[in-house]
Design brief:
Elements lengths: L6 E7 L18 H8 L2 E3 L2 E2 L5 H10 L3 H4 L15 H7 L3 E6 L15 E4 L14 H8 L30 H19 L3 E6 L37 H9 L8 H31 L6 E7 L18 H4 E2 L1 E4 L8 E3 L3 E2 L3 H9 L13 H6 L7 E6 L1 H8 E3 L9 H7 L1 E6 L3 E6 L4 E6 L17 H17 L17 E3 L27
Length: about 525
């Protein structure tokens, strides 16, 4: 990329499907600002998460490595072994690195991890003692919102029940990220110091809580129903069944509720788009726009009822595929659609190349997006992996292993893993808990409605993708789930038959919330 040390604006959302923008094919999404960003740059139309869950995806993004190299495969600990992030590399080259909003760092939610400074907005993880470090919650507290118990929406049993925000638009979490980003750009424009700004929105992650009047932007009766093939359950894996139980979505379908969920989800996306417009306007006003590399993307998607599934953690496109847009004049051609598969692991090398920086502690798995868009990359496929050990050990699943043997941590991870490889033509993934392979023809069946694994005419694609995925795992030392000839077959896990086992209880109260009700508490 160019060596003029551009500013870098990294716009990020949580749990946003790839097809929820006008520029990525949605016939109903109202996203004028992101569509304009796409028209001025490149749409990477085959962008995928390296792990379709929040922490693992973000860990791979900031380190430029797939999970088999970071060691983070779920919402678990990020590495604390001293390996650098892209923020470390940029800061070393004189960049002011600033993070606004959700980082989802673990094990320390307040860590800098290469940022010089952060303005923190996380769904949980605060106390009154650390209220001053939780900048958004401190903002609400100072404004007098003492009655708010769950600032980001009511979770737990209400997790997938659409709900207008209890906060007005001016104090909504999404608006706060936009406000703080604009304030940063106003100051940075006058300093002359190169900067990297990470502006990260929690939405459209559930609960779906757009503010008034945005909750009326999309009417449920005008929403399409999900993509549910006739034999959709044949495309499910254990990860999908766990998510449906976990999210209170496995006890029947109310189609009007489904359409309302989809309407509120899109309203959350549009409110993010509104903030993107404000941020881009400030870049123009301050004269910084054309010397700023702008990238917009998300950590993973959301099923929204497709296949009868909800949430994330699966490898179907609604969960694993993400929007990705990039704008930088002279580097990314306006209006271009790049079909080459890309991944969040490509962002670290892209930002490093733009800034003339380098991560020194480890090799990167990604590639500079500028090279991919220019057609000079040999990239043919990208990869993803998730290991959903947590819900198993929480008692949601029964282990059918009666051998009494002790599994190593590497073996247990492999037993609980789903791994994927995707090219322009094919997607292949293997669910070890189910001992199942799924192969999708991305050219002939873009909605992924039929598993082609057993189709003789697709044997060449199956063999090619298997070998690619096995090679990726072996190169990364992730071999506990492999034999010399292929997949290692493990004892199965089975979801508990009791429909109340494993329901999500995640009440993330504001630190000042008093949940006692005198005379009514048990």
């Amino acid at each position: 990329m160019a060596s003029s040390r551009p500013n870098i604006l990294h716009l990020f959302t949580d749990m946003q499907r790839w097809d929820t923008l006008g520029c990525t094919g949605s016939p109903v999404a109202r996203t004028p600002n992101l569509d304009r960003l796409a028209a001025d740059g490149v749409v990477f139309s085959n962008a995928y998460s390296p792990s379709p869950v929040c922490v693992a995806a973000r860990c791979s993004m900031i380190h430029g490595q797939y999970p088999l190299h970071t060691g983070c495969f779920e919402n678990t600990r990020m590495p604390t072994d001293g390996r650098e992030t892209i923020m470390d590399a940029l800061a070393r080259e004189g960049y002011r690195t600033h993070g606004i909003g959700k980082c989802h760092f673990t094990p320390d939610a307040y860590a800098l991890r290469g940022f010089r400074s952060r303005e923190i907005q996380e769904e949980g993880g605060s106390s009154m003692e650390r209220l001053g470090d939780s900048h958004y919650l401190k903002h609400l507290y100072d404004l007098g919102y003492r009655h708010i118990c769950e600032a980001f929406g009511i979770r737990g049993e209400m997790y997938y029940v659409p709900q207008p925000s209890q906060l007005p638009a001016r104090d909504h979490p999404t608006q706060w990220v936009g406000d703080r980003a604009v304030a940063f750009l106003e100051e940075a424009g006058a300093s002359g110091e190169p900067w990297y700004l990470y502006a990260s929105f929690i939405h459209p992650h559930p609960p779906f809580t757009p503010p008034n009047p945005w909750h009326k932007l999309y009417r449920p009766s005008l929403m399409s129903l999900p993509n549910v093939p006739e034999d959709a359950t044949s495309l499910h894996t254990l990860a999908n069944r766990i998510q449906n139980r976990y999210k209170y979505r496995d006890q029947g379908v109310d189609r009007n509720l489904v359409r309302l969920i989809r309407a509120y989800y899109l309203a959350c996306v549009s409110f993010v788009d509104f903030q993107v417009g404000r941020i881009m306007d400030e870049l123009r006003k301050s004269g910084q726009l054309d010397r700023t590399l702008v990238v917009f993307c998300s950590d993973h998607g959301e099923y929204l009822g497709d296949y009868g599934c909800w949430g994330k953690r699966g490898m179907h496109d609604p969960s694993a595929r993400v929007p990705m847009l990039a704008r930088f004049p002279g580097v990314f051609a306006p209006g271009y659609r790049c079909e080459t598969p890309v991944s969040l692991v490509d962002l670290a090398p892209t930002f490093a190349a733009a800034a003339g920086a380098s991560i020194r502690t480890h090799a990167l798995d990604g590639q500079d997006l500028a090279e991919v868009a220019a057609g000079t990359s040999a990239r043919e496929a990208v990869y993803s992996q998730i290991s959903i050990e947590g819900p198993f050990f929480a008692g949601m699943c029964r282990d059918t292993d009666t051998s009494g043997r002790s599994w190593t941590p590497e073996e247990m991870r492999a037993r609980c893993s789903t791994t994927m490889v995707v090219s322009r033509s094919w997607k292949y993934f293997y669910s070890a808990p189910d001992d199942r392979e799924l192969l999708f023809d991305r050219i002939g069946d873009p909605p992924e409605t039929r598993n082609r694994k057993g189709v003789s005419f697709c044997r060449g694609g199956l063999d090619q993708m298997r070998e690619r995925l096995w090679g990726h795992l072996r190169e990364g030392g992730e071999t506990a789930g492999l034999t010399e000839s292929g997949w290692r077959c493990f004892p199965r896990f089975e979801l508990d038959a009791d429909p109340d086992t494993g329901l999500l209880i995640q009440d993330l109260y504001t630190p000042w919330a008093d949940m006692r009700i005198p005379g009514y508490d048990a």
